[in-house]
Amino acid sequence: MHKDASPATGHGVGRCIIGFGLSLVLTVLAFWSVMGHVVPHDMIMPAVIFFGVAQLLVQLYYFMHLGLAPEQRENTVYLILTVTLIVIIVGLSLWVMHNADVNMMPRSMSVMDAVHRE
User: Fold this and answer.
1) CB 104 within 8 A of CB 114
2) How many domains does the chain have?
3) What confidence tens digit (pLDDT) does each residue in 24-81 have?
4) Are 29 and 35 spatial neighbours (Cβ–Cβ below 8 Å)?
5) Are 19 and 66 in contact (CB under 8 A)?
């Protein structure tokens, strides 16, 4: 039988139940905002993104135990560094692919025109 962890660590079953409840509520709100037609059509995507980011933060805090407490700070720093590296690598890769696409061949020229030009 599980018992709640000491208040100093805060990693108990009750904390997971709160996280699950909040995640479930945010999922239902996102679903309801789309299917219930309670959000204007042009605000559907921002609403879903908002609920998604809120759910991400809830899960990071309640399930991955990330925070600013001294015992959580190291994991939080590792996550921030990992996300920063992923953003840099993916962002630069997309930038290189975009520039390669733009600079490869003019859009107004077909492949046959390019072959006959040579």
Assistant:
1) no
2) 2
3) 999 999 999 999 999 999 999 999 999 999 999 999 889 888 888 888 888 889 999 9
4) no
5) no
Question: pLDDT of 7-39, one tens digit each?
Answer: 445 568 888 999 999 999 999 999 999 999 999
| Same domain? 28 vs 75 | no
Rounded Cα–Cα distance for residues 56 and 4 (Å): 24
Alpha helices by DSSP H, 36-63: 44-62
d(Cα 66, Cα 84) in Å, to the nearest integer? Answer: 16
Residue 61 shares a structural domain with residue 76: no
Residues sharing a CB contact under 8 Å with residue 81, sequence separation 6 or more, in sequence order? none
